[in-house]
Design brief:
The chain contains three helices and 17 strands. By secondary structure, it is mostly beta strands. It binds N-[(4-methoxyphenyl)methyl]2,5-thiophenedesulfonamide and zinc ion (ZN).
């Protein structure tokens, strides 16, 4: 059993990002810096297999941390398999982390370099665990694919999401979003790093197999600015722009980052 959520509330929190800075006894916290030269090529790592059914898309909502696109995870219609994983994992939601300016915003860094934003696709091990909530508490319960966003050409697939953001400007607003294929947000290169880590927001449980794509996707300035016009705050509250919603880097401790490529 992992740290229970209620034991986290008295810990020092990061001012901008209501997430405890440290977890007592935490040995596999996320995010981390990925030092390219220290990652170890593992020839036994398989290619990651992704098969998403766009019709499993349900809605977009602003949860006060980020905006999430949630999926129907009651069946195995949207799954990932292979890569470092021993089971197939079901897609539950994806969300982003971003900065107030383009110099930072990602959660993971590569050779201490920040990207302006990072996409997280959250999957859970429905082969072994009966519910997502149980999977969140187990070491092999979750698999999150991280994709870096870099400033460049406009991303047409992302634009359909961006167009919906004004409707979820405030915390706890939701809109229906019934067809979206997150595969369009994947870079073309299959290369990834993988390591054992945690959720980067409460409950910060050490239940995530991280799969971080080496190649970023390109988005343009207007698309990043659209993220930055979202609010942490509910309608009627004093407006706080939703920016810098990333957790500080955590110590690598006794972990090795493996790469699927040489
Ligand atoms: C007990 O019920 C629960 C337990 C946990 C959650 C949090 N939601 S979550 O697990 O999808 C994620 C939180 C942070 C993620 S990150 N940035 O590492 O990809 S994913 C919701 C309900
Ligand atoms: Zn995340």
């Amino acid at each position: 059993r992992l740290t229970s959520p209620d034991s986290l509330h008295h810990l020092p929190v990061h001012p901008l990002w209501q997430s405890p800075l440290t977890i007592p006894g935490g040995t596999r916290q996320s995010p981390i810096n990925i030092q390219w030269r220290d990652s170890v090529y593992d020839p036994f790592l398989k290619p990651l297999k992704i098969s998403y059914d766009p019709a499993t898309c349900l809605h977009i909502w602003n949860n006060g941390y980020s905006f999430l696109v949630e999926f129907d995870d009651s069946t195995d219609r949207s799954i990932i398999d292979g890569g470092p994983l021993e089971n197939q994992y079901r897609l539950k939601q994806f969300h982003f982390h971003w900065g107030a300016i383009n110099d930072w915003g990602s959660e993971h860094t590569v050779d201490c370099k920040f990207y302006p934003a990072e996409l997280h696709l959250v999957h859970w091990n429905a082969v072994v665990y009966p519910t997502f909530e149980e999977a969140v508490m187990e070491g092999d319960g979750l698999a999150v694919i991280g994709v870096f966003l870099k400033l460049g050409a406009r991303h047409e697939g992302l634009q359909t999401l961006v167009d919906a953001l004004p409707a979820v400007k405030h915390k706890d607003t939701v809109i229906e979003f019934d067809v979206f294929d997150p595969s369009c947000l994947m870079p073309s290169c299959p290369d990834y790093w993988t390591y054992a880590g945690s959720l980067t927001t409460p409950p910060l449980t050490e239940s995530v197999t991280w799969i971080i794509k080496k190649q970023p996707i390109e988005v343009d300035e207007d698309q990043l600015e659209a993220f930055r016009m979202l609010l942490f705050t509910s309608d009627g509250e004093e407006e706080k722009r939703m920016v810098d919603n990333f957790r500080p880097l955590q110590p690598l401790m006794n972990r090795t980052v493996r790469s699927s490529f040489q």
